[in-house]
Amino acid sequence: MSALRASGRWIRADLRARRGQALLTVLAVAGIVTALITSATLLEDNTNPWRGLFTQTDGAHVWISAQGPLDPAPLAALSGVTGVAGPYRSAPVTLTENGRRTPVALRGLPAAPPEVAHPVVLEGRWLDLADLDGVVVERSFAQAAGLRLGSPFQVTALNGTRHMLAVAGIAETAEQGFYPEWTPGLAWVLPETLDRIEPAIGRSQSVIGLRLADAEATRLVVQGAVTLLDERIQRIYTWREVRASMELDNRLLGLLLALFGAVGLAAAALAIVNAVGARVLTQSRDFATLKSLGLTRRQITGMLLVEHGSLGLLGVAAGLLCGQLVTGLALNGGAGPPLSFVPAAAITTGTALVVLVAVWLPAWRGGRTPPIPATPAAPPRGHLSRLARLAFVVRLPPALVLGARDAFTRRVPAMLTTFGVAIPMMMITIGLGCWATLDNFLAHPEQVGQAAALQVGPGRLPSSEAERLINADPDVAAVYPGTEVDALEPEQTRTVLARAVGTSARPYPFVVVEGRPYADRGEAVAGQGLLDLLDLKIGDRVRVTVGGTPLILRIVGRVVEPDQDGEVISFGLDSLAAKDAMPPEFYSLVLRPGVDPEAARARLLAASNQDLEVRRVVNPAERLAVIRVVIVALSVVLALIGLANLLTASAVGLRDHALDLAVLKAMGLTPRQVTATLVTGTGVLVVIGVVAGTLAGASMAGGLIDLQGYTSGVGAGIGRTPSALTLAVVMLLAVGAALLVALIPARRAARARVPVTAR
Question: What is the pTM of this model?
Fold first, then answer.
């Protein structure tokens, strides 16, 4: 009992003596665990918004859009189909809100919510026969359009008639992905209201959803539906496409956090090994004294394990709590995230084991300290290091030569310190690469297929008049007419986006990262997602079906395609068959350099008397702005790990030279020179770690970002490395901050009037 009380008093005294370093350990481990918990939550399938919505709405696994009325009986009789949603009539309309025109799919649903694929009302109420002007709007579309309960909902039908509705409710559905990644916006009205807005059956389509007994049997069911409906099919998609659309941003953030968390855990383990090893080294006389008083090796080891392990476990607990709070606020508005027990337990247990192993290794060494308290452990002696010899050759001041010699007095702690600084710097540099990639998206949108800043629809104007107004605008540099259609892939089990834009003679200015642009009829460029989906490569031919007409295209190039997970094929308007050719649905406008898109949009609307539909093309970097916040937060955690290593290196340096300070002063070195000696010993390790980590991160950043682009369907060719100026500034800041931190204890030791004895 006396040994336990003595150990407890010693632990409390030691923690009080180094509160700052203990706090750094807790914060660093907590930050790493928070990143890992958040990453697991975002990557876990159960946290995908689609899954919860699909369960709440009793969703359909397959959705089919077709021309004309549909008979649900043959589709319901297909093998594996357990339920049918619809068919519902759907008509395209245009929402006019604050002078902005937005395409909307207006869908007619009954007042009694259906059993299969029934939207979940979040605000307001569902459709009511007593209110024929009420409309229920899908949540993400309502947020993007700024719609609230009671907001006016003015729509314009294809025949030009305007109808004033009002928002009666806001609901969620698993029927399609979130707006604007999934367009057009979705809204529900009563069938009677839809018949009044769009009485012409030919200007609408039928939509039907099929719920399956086995979610993996979608291919067979889709093939059966294609056989039944044949050329009437306009679009087919399954639950997989909707799920992928909803999880894209979560998965990207999850992978980024997982990478930072895993590498940060390794860096934190190195920092803990280094810190505990330094404490063992500086407290060797204490351990010898405790042994001479009767404590055994196991008790010394256990004492160290309890002291330093408790800090790590406290960090694990704090990180687990922070991870729950962060993901709860981000995903569920404050409720606990639906992270299952197994991944949470795996992260907690794994991190705790890493921490305890990192503590046990130097603690075991501390337990082997010989019980000879009167013998101070002096630093190892030997030949001058190569760095010290170089300092002699170039005739550096004596203080710097001595500091260069001291940097590698203890090889293992020096190596741990260098790696402990290099790993955080490597990850910070990779984070800056992600930042530079987002900046490049904003500065050069043409590199991600967005050379056009505006997309203009004819609206209520004839195509010829719309073209005249567009071409008359002095700020428009180029105009590319286009249309987007859903095309059935060769096996006709799902649809992909076919974009006909520009012509073969004057193609849309895609930046082609592989191959070349299309330059003839029948040639096309595609996104990485489409190439992977159909197992194609540059030069292959592919057969797609557009409006019931087979279209054979030769893939001549790959472009970076952020839309539809890269499952997009683009070609000239003249490649469409005559029966599928139609007036352009939109005109992609490339503006002159320096022109503000909002100003150009306002001018076009004014010139057309608000008859044109003009929208600004949304850059993918805008919706990924949260990544910048994540990078800053993770960089702070990594900086704490680097700071912990720096404090350890400073403590070891002061310990090794505590008895040398009086000698250095007797040799004629001033306190300033003594300070320079101590700071140089730590600074050399910091400079090596910072430079090595920055170079390693710069060499890896572009490749890692391209790998993520490739696996997500966007495609490789998007990764950017931070500029040389950015890297230089970051390295100078890191080294400068490290030297300032090392300067404080060095100045205190150099100004001491008596030699500082080693603990």
Answer: 0.76
